[in-house]
Write a structure and sequence with these properties.
Helices cover about 60% and strands about 10% of the residues. The protein is built from 14 helices and eight strands. The strands form two sheets. It has a four-stranded antiparallel β-sheet with strand order 1-8-3-6. Strand 4 (about 30-35) and strand 5 form a beta hairpin. Helix 4 packs antiparallel against helix 5 and helix 8 (about 205-225) packs parallel to helix 10. It is flat, with a radius of gyration of 23 Å.
């Protein structure tokens, strides 16, 4: 029988890449499905209304989730296994018609997007693609620029702007390493060159030592139990730093500081947002473990169990500390076979 499940605002119901073995129908609340646009890499958000189902395509097709499902408010859903949903759907033609309507709307939206792209390509596809890349580069959206110039060179390796596209691609790549998206000095697309690319990374070796010291100092504050000070230090690294690896680590540490400060709801909300934007974060398992701990602390046992099970489902070495801790936590919660 399908079971009701409740999620607090900002909770993640499932992650992109999760195994898809459940189908959901929204009863009350608001849910957003968040995924990335294939062409631009920008976040796309689809709202789910009460009475609508989600997670159907991946579950019926037996492939991993393609999006994150996020509860925007306190939410109640009905959770079906695939056989349960198939049985209900076969007995209720209204559900089948609703499925067809949803899928039809999705196909129309996709067709409309493809038609727009094709209409643009019928005009001057190479020029249009190159100018889009320049637009992103000029506005410091470096990851988008990198993607677009890479596509240009794939489709038009001998195009009239291929040489400049290659230079712009290098500029975008170096800017991502040096500054990250939306940061760093402006780029003049009319004068962009290899020299401009080199200027973006000038002094990076000198800055690296200072960045590492800032991070290590913040970690030291955590070890001293000065969690609020550590939180401020990590936040400064995220806001002003240029090393992507240190920024990713600092984002995780910010969430850990919330947990150590016993701000469990804030921790859950923060990590939910982090994983929505970075579903493949290098500290994914440890993040899920802390989210499980937070849910356990505030009395949401079922959601805590779900996080621990996700850690194990991801797989990895049996010696992985996160897996060991997840199994121990499940055992403490009375889950058999943990």
């Amino acid at each position: 029988m399908p079971k009701p499940a409740q999620y607090r605002a900002s909770s993640l119901i499932y992650f992109q890449g999760d195994p898809a073995d459940k189908i959901y129908i929204l009863q009350t609340g608001k849910i957003s499905l968040v995924y990335q646009d294939i062409e631009t890499g920008a976040d796309v958000r689809d709202s789910v209304q009460p009475g609508e189902f989600f997670g159907v395509k991946s579950a019926l097709g037996r492939y991993a989730r393609e999006e994150n499902a996020v509860a925007l408010s306190d939410t109640t859903v009905m959770v079906f296994t695939v056989p349960e949903f198939e049985a209900v759907a076969m007995a209720n033609t209204r559900i089948i018609m609703k499925m067809l309507k949803v899928f039809s709307n999705q196909m129309r939206r996709v067709h409309k997007q493809v038609s727009k792209v094709m209409a643009k390509e019928e005009k001057q596809p190479a020029d249009g693609l190159f100018h889009i890349g320049e637009f992103y580069l000029k506005n410091k959206r470096f990851s988008h620029a990198k993607y677009v110039f890479g596509r240009y060179l794939t489709f038009y390796p001998s195009g009239k702007d291929a040489i400049q596209a290659s230079k712009n691609l290098e500029i975008a790549e170096n800017a991502i390493i040096r500054f990250g998206d939306g940061k760093g000095p402006g780029v003049s697309v009319s004068n962009s060159s290899a020299a401009a690319s080199q200027s973006l990374v000038a002094g990076s070796m000198d800055d690296q030592g200072a960045a590492n010291k800032s991070y290590n100092d913040a970690v030291s504050l955590v070890s001293q139990g000065k969690y609020q000070e550590a939180y401020s230090a990590f936040k400064t690294i995220v806001e002003t730093g240029s090393d992507l690896d240190l920024i990713a680590k600092s984002k995780f540490e910010i969430g850990r500081c919330f947990f150590l400060l016993n701000k469990f709801e804030e921790c859950i909300k923060y990590f939910t947002n982090m994983l929505t934007k970075h579903p493949k974060h290098p500290d994914l398992r440890e993040t899920m473990y802390i989210m499980g701990q937070c849910n356990d602390k505030v009395g949401r046992k079922e959601q805590a169990i779900a996080f621990y099970k996700r850690i194990i489902a991801i797989g990895g070495s049996e010696d992985d500390s996160s897996i060991i801790k997840a199994k121990r936590a499940l055992s403490q919660l009375g889950v058999q076979g943990a």
